[in-house]
Amino acid sequence: MFDKNAKPSPRRQDQLDRYKRLVERMSPNSQMGKGLLRAYWLGGAICAFGQFLQEAGKMWLGMNNTAAGTFCSTVLVFLTALLTGIGVWDRIGQYAGAGAFVPITGFANAVVSPAIEFRREGLVLGLGAKLFTIAGPVLVWGVSASVIVGIIYAIWPW
Amino acid sequence: MLWSLTKAFLVGGAICTIGQVLVLKTKVTPARILVGYIVTGVILSALGLYGPLAEFAGAGATVPLTGFGHALTNGVKKAVQEIGFMGAFTGGLTSTAAGIAAAVFFGAITALVFKPRPK
Question: Which of A54, A84, A139 sits opposite B59 (nearest CB)?
Fold first, then answer.
């Protein structure tokens, strides 16, 4: 009934071309804009919440700057672990992309999620090893870069 | 407090948006973006560019992973000032210990408590 090789009529072809151009013009931009907006507002909201935690720690819990910073990252990591455990974080991650994984919440999720997934392969080589699937590379390159900076700094302090 | 939250929102959001541009425009995987953010943070901090941003934006600059790199560099510089050359090896992990220990600890606990769910 439908011949795949049959060419559409010129008029139909014109319609198809116009539609294709329309799709090309509309979709990448709007998708891009939406993705960026989502990343911006959720990423910003996570950071603002972190700022709130720091100030709350200083104001009400009598913490100094260092303790408040630690408090902020610990609470964010804890909440992410919890949300990952109950399966909500996946949806947040899909919604906001980099807005969810660029803050420290992304580091926490990268630790928790493989740990849960590979739990069945055992506590040592499953959970224990796979926990570092993404955190491992992050630590390897982060710590190595900082050691290089430290060595340079020890020789030529600026 | 409202102004500091706004600053954190604006700067933190912008840093995340840069990551989203990388996700949408290139084929870089999220894991590489994370590593790239940390190393970028270490370098920017060493060049003295990240400190002022962290001063201005607070958690907006320290909560994104570039802030993790900033903490590594800060720790290393402080340790070198205190104990000399060997500080290059102790400072980074000292200053980021809380974040790492929290992630490892809560990660392990969560994995023990929750079952993997079908995707």
Answer: A54
